[in-house]
C-alpha cells in the first residue's frame, strides 16, 4: 500500500508522458520522408517535441543542433518528473542525473581528443544544469584544450579521476570513457544501498547489472574483432562485475580464437537466449544490446508499476527514442532508402 500511495501520482504522470513516445508506425512515416527539413517538421507536430525546434530554420538543421534540441527534450522530461517526485524518488533522479553529466563529459572528450581543442556549445543546457549540477557548462565549453577542460572540473567528483588519467602519456578516449562508466556504476551501488529500499535496489540491479554485463560483452567483441588484443589485455578492460554473465562464459568469450567461437559462447549466455535475434547469424552487438535491455526495462516497469522502475524505464526509453531519431534523420540526410532506414530503428 505504501508504494501505491507514494507512486500513484508519479505513475500516472509517467503513463501520460509514455503515451507521447514515438510509435513504430510514426517512425515508418518519418523514414519515408525525403529531407531532414521534412523530418524536423514532423517532429514539430509531436507533443513531446513541441517548441523544441522553433528557433531553427533550414540552414541550421545540422546534426549538432538537432541533437541538442532532442537532448533538451529529455532534460525537460526529467525536470517534469523531478517536480512530481518525493524526496526518496528525487534521490534516485539525482543519481540518474550523474548519467547526464557523464554523457556531456564524454561528448567533450570525443570532441577534443582528435584535435586537442574543444569546440562544443553547451549553453543550451545551462539553465537545466544550473538546477541540478555543480558543473559550469559555459566554463567547460570555453576551455581551449583538454588540460584546461579537466582543470575546470576541479571541485567536482570527476576531477581527481580525470586529472590522474590526464597525467598518463598514452591515455586514450577509451580510457576516459571506461573510467567514467566505472565511477558511475560504483556510485550507483553506493547510493542505492544507502537511500533505496531492498525492492527498489533489486529492480535497479536488474537493469544496471544487465547493462554492465552487456558492456563487457561489447568490449570483448570489439577487442577481438577490431583490435585483436591478447586475452590479458582484454581482461584489463573489463568491469570486474558479473550479474547474469557467468565468469566461465566471460573467459570463454575472451579466449575465443574466432568470431564464430565468440558467438557460439554468446548463444549460451542469458543474453544470447533472451534475444530474439539468431545469434548464429552474428547480429550487430549494439542492436542486440538495445533489444535485450528494452525487454528488461519494460518488464521491470510492467511488473512493478508503482515503483522506482517506472521512472527508470521511462527515462531509458526516452533516451533510446532520441538515438533512433538521430539515426533516422542522419540516414535521411545521406539519402538511404526507407526500408534500410527503418531497419535501423524498428525491430523487424
From TrEMBL:
The record ties this protein, via SUPFAM superfamilies, to: V-type ATP synthase subunit C
Enumerate the UniProt keywords alphabetically. Answer: Ion transport, Transport
- What does the record give under GO molecular function? proton-transporting ATPase activity, rotational mechanism
Q: Does the keyword Cell membrane apply?
A: no
Q: Identify one Pfam family in the record.
A: vATP-synt_AC39
UniProt entry tagged with the keyword Transport: yes
**Record field: transmembrane:** none
Highest taxon, organism lineage:
Bacteria
Protein name (Swiss-Prot/TrEMBL): ATPase
Species lineage:
Bacteria, Bacillati, Bacillota, Clostridia, Lachnospirales
Amino acid at each position: 500500500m505504501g508504494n501505491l500511495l507514494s507512486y500513484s501520482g508519479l505513475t500516472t504522470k509517467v503513463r501520460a508522458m509514455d503515451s507521447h513516445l514515438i510509435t513504430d508506425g510514426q517512425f515508418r512515416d518519418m523514414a519515408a520522408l525525403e529531407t531532414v527539413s521534412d523530418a524536423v517538421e514532423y517532429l514539430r507536430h509531436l507533443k513531446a517535441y513541441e517548441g523544441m525546434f522553433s528557433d531553427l530554420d533550414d540552414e541550421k538543421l545540422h546534426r549538432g543542433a538537432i541533437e541538442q534540441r532532442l537532448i533538451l527534450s529529455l532534460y525537460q522530461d526529467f525536470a517534469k518528473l523531478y517536480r512530481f517526485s518525493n524526496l526518496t524518488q528525487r534521490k534516485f533522479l539525482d543519481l540518474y542525473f550523474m548519467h547526464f553529466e557523464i554523457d556531456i563529459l564524454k561528448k567533450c572528450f570525443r570532441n577534443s581528443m582528435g584535435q586537442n581543442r574543444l569546440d562544443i556549445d553547451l549553453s543550451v543546457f545551462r539553465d537545466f544544469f544550473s538546477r541540478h549540477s555543480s558543473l559550469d557548462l559555459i566554463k567547460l565549453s570555453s576551455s581551449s584544450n583538454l588540460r584546461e577542460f579537466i582543470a575546470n572540473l576541479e571541485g567536482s567528483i570527476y576531477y581527481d579521476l580525470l586529472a590522474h588519467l590526464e597525467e598518463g602519456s598514452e591515455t586514450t578516449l577509451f580510457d576516459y570513457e571506461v573510467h567514467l562508466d566505472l565511477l558511475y556504476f560504483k556510485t550507483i551501488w553506493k547510493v542505492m544501498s544507502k537511500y533505496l529500499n531492498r525492492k527498489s535496489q533489486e529492480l535497479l540491479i536488474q537493469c544496471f547489472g544487465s547493462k554492465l554485463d552487456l558492456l563487457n560483452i561489447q568490449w570483448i567483441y570489439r577487442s577481438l574483432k577490431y583490435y585483436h588484443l591478447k586475452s590479458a589485455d582484454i581482461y584489463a578492460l573489463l568491469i570486474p562485475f558479473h550479474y547474469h554473465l557467468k565468469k566461465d562464459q566471460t573467459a570463454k568469450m575472451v579466449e575465443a580464437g574466432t568470431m564464430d567461437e565468440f558467438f557460439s559462447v554468446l548463444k549460451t549466455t542469458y543474453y544470447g537466449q533472451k534475444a530474439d535475434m539468431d545469434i548464429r547469424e552474428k547480429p550487430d552487438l549494439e542492436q542486440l544490446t538495445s533489444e535485450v535491455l528494452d525487454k528488461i526495462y519494460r518488464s521491470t516497469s510492467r511488473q512493478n508499476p508503482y515503483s522506482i522502475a517506472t521512472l527508470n524505464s521511462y527515462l531509458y526509453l526516452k533516451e533510446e527514442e532520441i538515438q533512433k531519431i538521430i539515426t533516422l534523420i542522419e540516414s535521411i540526410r545521406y539519402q538511404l532508402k526507407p526500408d534500410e532506414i527503418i531497419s535501423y530503428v524498428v525491430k523487424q
